[in-house]
Design goal:
The chain is mainly α. It is built from two helices and no strands.
Length: 85
């Protein structure tokens, strides 16, 4: 799984390098319009394992929705095929 994730990570990096060069600009969460909100879980103190699993599952669903919307809006996704992303 780690190799698969690493390959996914390199696709947009390699595509960006071909378009704009090797320097990747720093982009923070607040720079991305429509990025899903995420509460800092670690500020809640002790959290039961079942609740952590619920939180993580919700985070994954939110990330999935964000990426689906972003994929629908993009006009330049040559590095990403529907099956590979």
């Amino acid at each position: 799984m780690a190799q698969t994730e690493d390959a996914h990570r390199h696709r947009p990096i390699d595509a960006g390098a071909k378009r704009v060069g090797d320097t990747i600009p720093l982009i923070r969460r607040e720079h991305v319009s429509g990025l899903y909100a995420r509460r800092p879980v670690w500020l809640a103190g002790q959290v039961p394992l079942a609740r952590i699993r619920e939180i993580v599952a919700g985070m994954e669903r939110g990330a999935g929705r964000f990426h689906e919307k972003a994929a629908q809006r993009t006009s330049d996704a040559g590095w990403c095929s529907r099956r590979a992303c």
